[in-house]
Predict the structure.
Amino acid sequence: MDKFMPKSDSWFPGDGKGTKWKTQPISVRFSVDTDAVLRAMSDRQDYIRAAVEAKLRADGLLPDGDDAA
């Protein structure tokens, strides 16, 4: 393997969620009950992302429509 291989060739492909590989993650802690429910979900990451985006839209902090641009 060439040690100068571009990172785009070695990273997993994106799945269209509008995130970039350089985006810093935001980490949060939840109550014990909420944590148990979230950890039992197979689509936990998608669920949390959708819930946060829905709340931001409801509060008028994120415009309606596609914000992935």
